[in-house]
What we know:
35 helices; Dna Ligase, domain 1; D-amino Acid Aminotransferase, Chain A, domain 1; binds adenosine-5'-diphosphate
Amino acid sequence: MTKWVYIFGEGVTDGDASMRNLLGGKGANLAEMARLGLPVPPGFTITTEVCTQYYKGGESYPSELDAQINAALETVGKLTGRTFGDPANPLLLSVRSGARVSMPGMMDTVLNLGLNDTTVAALAKESNDERFAYDSYRRFIQMYSDVVLNVDGDYFEEIIEDYKDEHDLVLDTDLSAEDWKKVVVLFKAKTEEELGKPFPDDPREQLWGAIGAVFGSWMLPRAQTYRRLHDLPSDWGTAVNVQAMVFGNMGDDSATGVAFSRNPSNGENALYGEYLINAQGEDVVAGIRTPQDITEAARIAAGSDKPSLEATMPQMYQQFAEACKKLETHYRDMQDMEFTIERGKLWMLQTRNGKRTLKAALKIAVDMADEGVISKEEAVKRIDPTSLDQLLHPTIDPDAEIDELATGLPASPGAASGAIVFNSDEAEAEKADGKAVVLCRVETSPEDIHGMHAAEGILTSRGGMTSHAAVVARGMGKPCVAGAGTIRMDMRNEVMVADGRTFKKGDIITIDGGSGQVIAGQVKMRQPELSGDFKKLMQWADNIRRLRVRTNAETPTDVKVALSFGAEGIGLCRTEHMFFDGDRITSVREMILADTLQERRAALDKLLPMQRGDFIEIFELMDDLPVTIRLLDPPLHEFLPKTDAEIAEVAKHMGVDAEDLKERAEELHEFNPMLGNRGCRLLISYPEVAEMQARAIFEAAAEVSKSRSVQVKPEVMVPLVGLKAELDEVKQRIEAMAEAVEAEKGIKLDYSIGTMIELPRAALQSEEIAKSAEFFSFGTNDLTQTTFGISRDDAGSFLGKYQEKGLIEKDPFITLDSDGVGELIKHAAEHGRKTRPNIKLGICGEHGGDPASIAFCEETGLDYVSCSPFRVPVARLAAAQAVLKGADTGTL
Ligand code: ADP
Ligand code: MG
Ligand code: MG
């Protein structure tokens, strides 16, 4: 026979904490507390399997359930010396839902179940407090009607308010036993009116009604939505906990409260909580009365004149504090607990690992490891890597007063203030003048990169979380609010209308990319602080991880940020970003539009010193850390002049006719530039570009190597290779250039040449390609695009729907698709190593900062991941957790 019901209570406990899946979190922990000898009101848990069976069997219960519940009720009755439904000595119950993880959307707890016109009299007699008994009774009817019978709770509040008005009463506490008796009659009448049948008086009917409501709540739309948003499967089911009532509202020697074993906001190792005298259940959190501090220390710190539990009930406080310590030591984590004191006796009603802020999480993990409660490995597992984001950006001071204009999508975290600018060139010009600006656009495009770089933050009125603005801003670690649809960007008149007000260029606004808020004016900020705990935990993570962590960076600012966050190299230095800088773009355009080799060389000669200067700066900053430089990659059209003014400027520089130039630009138009003349194809069409870049790299390496003991060892990367022959074609140009520079400078260079693996063909041909490539860097953004045949920039319009329909689980541009793209990477890694056992393997692209993708890289045995500077700490922690096989943030 299946056991559907598990008892907990002194000496009779069936379950324990390890049975969370079967008993739900609340039930498993109630059982565990009872086993630990803590005072827990006895009760029983109806398992999650009953819930699963209930739905499988067309909403019917297993046949043995009734008998098992009756037996359990008898045991609980024995332990409490009462009988369920007994008119003279009734057992009263709470019915509480409890899934594996605590889940908003589930049924609210019903207290005082078992009361009716008969048993209420017994309660009054026993407690010698008629008012208490009828107050409890009316609360029960109210709760049960609302939660189980679905009668709108507002009716009952209205009845109480009307009653008070009619009788000249102000507060609920002004109502006497007689008053509550009358209210009870009114409540029952209302329920009957709404339901067309009387309120159930039979305790058994009440109990089965409540059990059914808990199981029913599992499939309510709000619970389903929550599960979908949090990736929780439906077949987990919920358990039902039925427990003897204890009363915190039996007078001034009774109380109820909630507490954390350590401070959940700053992590301080001190009991922290609140309580109310003469109160029941949720009164503490309901905000009707102001709760009091549990400890004297907290009361003094809060400047409260309401006595602490420590002062009013020192003995109870002592017992409770001991229980907290015991639980924390036992669970080896900070606990969140509920308790009730009934006439001078303490009862524990719940414990679970407490939710906490990131700051507290770091402090608690580090403290507990230092205290020897947990190991350093466990401490490292306790922090959610993605949550670190919060610590790495400036945030709005929570005390600041704000004038909110609109809310958009929280596309990239951090807050920024600055003057409004409407185009990227202006952003750059203002920045050059030392001004902070926020780039405001309908949406952004690749041509805005320089403006986005220059701006403190980016605001768009259109686009989603994977829009260009959002993706690029995240990559740059720039605050971004995207798709703030209520704002009208009037680009022509250079104004923006928000909240009925008009803002012009130069007006100051603030955006908060963590919340999506757009705010008028300057707001006080908090700078990111890398606290001692944070640093310490990161060092522990570094000792555990195997994967190296590099960064994708090309500007000195980004490189410095990445280094300060612990980057161990550059995995991707995108040279094209350097091409957009200042007036370089004009030279780039001249180079592209040149008619003759001679003209092209002339343009490239202008670019050479600039590129060399960039590389010198980077090599110097990176010291002896590795740097992978990717040769020119993007499609030509990103560089072409678009407006007539731009064409005119380039024409002037080249001394050619603007009309001719326009024609030339049109000739270069491509139907599908992403799959057009880009990457190594471009380097093959214009070999002088590869030569110029190689020369810039090698001259810079030679220059920097001169002044130090360790030679610079640049890693030159050729993008978008599909054929070994393509790589060879570019490689011989690079090698020839290296020889030339060596001869000119009279030195020996130390460098390597490798390729990106970003086309399925390259992955499949990796064994062959590795003959020429000394390293592979998996360009997972493009590899995902080319494997799926989906353009990332256009995916927004349908990928979301795919996720809604459950066709795909995760956005493959955020979390690496291990089944498809991952297979290609595995194949390439394995076959690349066949040819060249020590080939260096890494990934660059957004996935390099995503914990699940990092776990894949660990499993596949890659050497490093490379991510944007602001994700370096995230990657360091995730890489350590990948070794430890997962996170255990434990606050579920
Ligand atoms: P939640 O999951 O929302 O916390 P709970 O079932 O834990 O729901 O509890 C709701 C409130 O009822 C809590 O304040 C809890 O302490 C109280 N409560 C639950 N069971 C009992 C009981 N047997 N006796 C007294 N109070 C109870
Ligand atoms: Mg609770
Ligand atoms: Mg690419």
